[in-house]
UniProtKB/TrEMBL annotation:
Signal peptide (UniProt feature, chain positions): 1-23
InterPro entries named in the record: Vps62
Protein known as: Vacuolar protein sorting-associated protein 62
Lineage: Eukaryota, Viridiplantae, Streptophyta, Embryophyta, Tracheophyta
Taxonomy, superkingdom: Eukaryota
Record region (Disordered): 611-633
Keyword terms of this UniProt record: Signal
PANTHER family documented for this protein: DUF946 FAMILY PROTEIN (DUF946), F1C9.34 PROTEIN
Record's compositionally biased regions (Basic and acidic residues): 621-633
Record keyword Manganese present: no
């Protein structure tokens, strides 16, 4: 089915739904379900495996790919609630949850434990303590359970609140930790110690003067009382205290932090909600390589209408790169965690090295000399090196059709990963952004109800495709805490407990067919609604890219120790801009529609993204906002 048919089918179906007309698919061809694939409906939703159209079940992943965590339950509760009805299923689910193990009942550990001998010596990396400027902090991952509930939140499995345990001598609790029950326990909070030179007159830590009760509940799960510390003047609270009695906790139970060592925080992921009262993970509002905000690991409990969190984050007033890994430690980290990327079995457009792309006929075009493109040096030495993206230059495939098609397909044997290392969250974490280059991005693929997948003609195609995943490693101990998966114009962060590993701690992830977006598990990921949208298909197969073959292209904090290749400082587009003449096709479709559908059709067309109308090569890694900032999520 070509581009016209694809647009017509998608828009017509959405239009009929928009005006309340029952949509009956007139097509003869039925969809054959993907075999052994999980299906994710929505943007980064919960994987649900379907065997046939109505039978919900879960197929465990290959256990050699998983960390030390429990498997998923045999039946997906989200699907079961839809089939059985909410009242019956929810009640049964709550009763079962209290009598059977939940994911959070398992403490997640990496397949190969991290210890001090895992990393070469030198500097402050993985020393266990970070000095923020008169305030030392340590990362605690051992907890005592305080309270939990078994419904609501992600997966309707509830959430649990913990306190840090095993706090080192001289350190103090800053707040409690909480997470949803639908994933293994794998969290942390910071504890702090005052090491300032003026403890008598201006200590960095001070107890609260009192507490405010912000939320309480008495239910079958037991009573809970959530307290917000009232900080003395010149100090701020950075976490909550939780009790199971109505008595206020002792004021010395927790410490507040001197205001100059704090920054504004913002809510991040939702942990749990009840009657317009929410529990959120929090993070610094300002994040980037130069930003000094430090995540504490605590949560905030507040009304849904609250504009800003009632707790702050910490601030690193020291030299931010002080606890970053040195060159030898970077090499050790990458060897310890280097990913393997699984490509789709039907993939036609493979990655290659940048050098292969340049050496096999890629051309540099100049707007004022379009008819005279020039070859590119293997390292990009003859590319423009200024920071302007004014449209004056762009790259393209070879001119002759034979070489053009050959280069489009890439060259997996030459492919390597390009690594950018940067400080994050005030230098308490190291982000390793791992970039992969594809000479060509294939066409978008559509899903419409039960129809077989089909390409949307030229929609989604462009020359030059940069994709990446990011490993977030703790500078306290070198442990991999999170992984970011880029998915077109944004992506998602997942804890290490939610991803797949093989051969020790080596991450495994999946590249989608044609579009090359990154996903943590094999299956169908649909960007759309009502079972209509753009498909992102991934599979677990034998075609993989070993990303241990890499080039460290940038680590600005190390200065001249890492030399950036010239192509990295090319700030123009990696492909040409091409406009499609499909507007006339849309008008022809519109003329054939009945009046009741036409207005809805017009409103849908107006909402179509700009990339539907043409293609444009992407910018390089260094021009992305996440090069110096945090990832989009």
């Amino acid at each position: 089915m070509g581009v016209n048919g694809g647009i017509f089918c998608t828009v017509l179906l959405l239009a009929t739904q928009a005006v309340g007309v029952h949509a009956i698919a007139p097509w003869k061809k039925l969809h054959v379900p993907l075999k052994n694939h999980s299906e994710v409906i929505g943007d980064g939703g919960v994987p649900t495996t379907l065997d046939g159209p109505f039978k919900p079940m879960t197929v465990p992943l290959d256990k050699s790919f998983r960390g030390n965590a429990v498997d998923s339950p045999d039946t997906d509760p989200l699907v079961q609630r839809t089939v059985k009805g909410c009242l019956t299923a929810c009640c049964a689910e709550n009763n079962l949850a209290q009598n059977q193990a939940l994911p959070i009942d398992t403490i997640f550990k990496l397949p190969v434990p991290v210890n001090t001998s895992s990393w070469p010596p030198g500097g402050g990396f993985a020393s266990g303590i970070i000095d923020l400027g008169g305030l030392q902090v340590s990362q605690i991952s051992k907890f005592n359970k305080i309270w939990g509930t078994y419904s609501g939140g992600p997966g309707n499995q509830g959430f649990t609140i913990f306190e840090p345990s095993g706090i080192p001598q001289g350190f103090f609790m800053l707040g409690s930790y909480s997470q949803p029950n639908n994933k293994p326990l794998f969290g942390w909070v910071l504890v702090a110690k005052d090491v300032s030179t003026n403890k008598r007159n201006s200590p960095t830590l001070w107890p609260p003067i009192d507490y405010t009760l912000v939320w309480n509940s008495v239910s079958k799960d037991g009573p809970i009382y959530v307290w917000l510390p009232i900080a003395p003047i010149g100090y701020k609270a950075v976490g909550h205290v939780v009790t199971t009695t109505q008595n206020k906790p002792p004021v010395k139970k927790i410490m507040c932090v001197r205001s100059d060592l704090t920054e504004q925080s913002e809510t991040c992921s939702l942990i749990w909600e009840s009657d317009n009262f929410n529990f959120y993970d929090v993070r610094p509002s300002n994040r980037g390589v130069q930003a000094s905000g430090v995540k504490v690991g605590t949560f905030v409990a507040q009304n849904e209408s609250a504009n800003l969190p009632s707790i702050a984050c910490l601030k690193n007033t020291n030299y931010i790169p002080k606890y970053m890994p040195n060159l030898q430690q970077i090499k050790a980290i990458f060897k310890f965690y280097s990913p393997s990327m699984c490509l789709h079995l039907d993939e036609k457009y493979f990655p290659s090295s940048v050098e292969w792309f340049f050496s096999n006929g890629a051309l540099l075009y100049k707007r004022s000399q379009k008819s005279n493109p020039i070859p590119i040096e293997p390292n990009g030495a003859n590319l423009p090196q200024d920071h302007n993206d004014d449209g004056a230059y762009w790259l393209d495939l070879p001119v002759d059709s034979t070489n053009k098609e050959r280069v489009k397909k890439g060259n997996l044997s030459s492919a390597k990963s390009y690594v950018h290392v940067k400080p994050m969250l005030g230098g308490t974490f190291t982000d390793l952004a791992i970039w992969v280059f594809y000479p060509f991005n294939g066409p978008a693929r559509a899903k419409i109800w039960f129809l077989s997948p089909f390409n949307l003609g030229r929609i989604g195609e462009h020359v030059g495709d940069w994709e990446h995943v990011t490993l977030r490693v703790s500078n306290f101990n070198g442990e991999l805490k999170q992984v970011y998966f880029s998915q077109h114009n944004k992506g998602e962060w997942l804890d290490s407990s939610q991803v797949e590993f093989q051969s020790g701690n080596m991450l495994v992830y999946y590249s989608s067919l044609n579009g090359h977006a990154s996903y943590p598990h094999p299956g169908l990921y649909l960007k759309g609604a009502f079972n209509v949208g753009i498909r992102n298909d991934t599979v677990q197969g034998d075609i993989a890219m070993d990303m241990a073959v890499y080039e460290l292209v940038s680590a600005e904090y190390l200065g001249s120790k890492v030399v950036e290749p010239p192509w990295l400082n090319y700030f123009r587009k990696w492909g040409p801009k091409i406009l499609y003449d499909i507007y006339d096709d849309v008008q022809k479709i519109e003329k054939k529609l009945p009046g009741i559908v036409k207005s809805a059709f017009e409103s849908i067309v107006k909402r179509l993204p700009s990339e539907v109308w043409g293609e444009e090569g992407p910018s390089g890694p260094k021009e992305k906002d996440n090069w110096n900032g945090d990832e989009r999520s």
